[in-house]
Amino acid sequence: MTKVSDRLNRLTESATLAMARMSRELIAKGHDIISLSLGEPDFDTPEFIKESAKKAIDDNFSHYTPVPGFLELREAICGKFKRDNNLDYTPDQIVVSTGAKQSLSNVCMSLLNSGDEVILPCPYWVTYTELVKLTGGIPIEIQSSVDTDFKVTPDQIEAAITPKTKALMFSSPCNPSGSVYTKQELLDIAKMLEKYPDIFIISDEIYEHINFTDAHFSIGTFPSMKDRTITINGVSKGFAMTGWRVGFIGAPLWIAKASNKLQGQLTSATCSIAQKATKTAMLSEPKKVTALMKEAFFKRRNMLLERLNEIPGIKCNIPQGAFYIFPDFSYYFGKKDGEEVIKNSNDLCMYLLNKAHVALVSGAAFGNPECIRISYAASDKKLMEAAKRIKDKLAELR
Ligand code: PLP
Predict the structure, then answer these.
(1) Which residues is 201 bridged to in the sheet?
(2) Domain 61-284 annotated CATH 3.40.640.10
(3) Which of 61, 135, 169, 175 is close enough to 202 for a disulfide, judged by CB 3.0 to 4.6 Å?
(4) Domain boundaries along the sequence of the chain
(5) Is the CATH number 3.30.200.20 carried by domain 6-44+288-394?
(6) What are the tens digits of pLDDT across the range 318-327?
(7) 247 CB under 6 A from ligand 1?
(8) How far is the CA of 198 from the centre of ligand 1 (A)?
(9) pTM: predicted TM-score of the whole model, two decimal places
């Protein structure tokens, strides 16, 4: 008999981590698996950032820091918000956490009461639904598809609003679709939201620096949204620092205070050394630091899109950011592998894992069950080989 709490029983295992686990198991059995399931840059943290962490160790910067992060770091983050996003925050509005994942979790815990609804445009990052559920909220999904570049309209959002709506949560650039909301699209959403002053916006901008349009826009910049937007960001993606575990929020003071209070009981603060490294990242010129990585991702995106578009039945949008392609594979649902019917994207992902030896993540986990997420944070050679394997194995379905 298990005594796991109801709260935990409501939680689904992260689909991306589950796929990584399954592919590791197959690799351990000797299979040659190409893993395109994980969401992290296949680049190393820049040298000058690593150097500052080494120096922090030598300088014995090894004690507890203030819960929301040490002051100079929060000042540097305010500088980043102003420089890159034209957002005005003071250091007491910044809370640095153990990854943007904890930032999001702090915000959900701080904002949501049981039964509060959170609108999630599909596709959303897998963790959003689970965090909302874990903190007592109700995820309300709004559909989109490849035909609308996986974006939703203000009318769609408005149709989902009820007296219980507490927040709208989305990422742009989006994981998993790579879609980027333009300034005009965000303005249209903001104008609609002006009619609903009690709704908060949780704007996840973690992929800000991997944006091929070079036009990242923060919804919190609009004066009418400023006092009700929580801007989420971090160093994981843009600075290839996933393992350092640093994320942060810029938020209305009362939300920052609530996150701070919660974090004080949960983790105290994130790692002091990682905070020093993050300060260095914040004071650098992100455009220069990320240029090589972004260029590599852009080339790979084009190359992979070209290959995927050669496969009959697959429909792709043209992702403008992050490092994922999210094709619609529904053409293959109902086809057979021998006697087994491929009913949905979960079945198709398992088929591609077991037969093509390519690990991908089913779109069902992101709210779009007709799609599959392919991460192109892998070498050109691996991507080419994976595209060939996918094509060959799909051709065997009848
Ligand atoms: N937000 C989105 C949209 C992500 O894709 C991820 C990581 O995959 C995160 C947040 C979490 O990032 P971190 O590594 O800072 O926890």
Answers:
(1) 168, 229
(2) yes
(3) 169
(4) 6-44+288-394, 61-284
(5) no
(6) 999 999 999 9
(7) yes
(8) 26
(9) 0.96
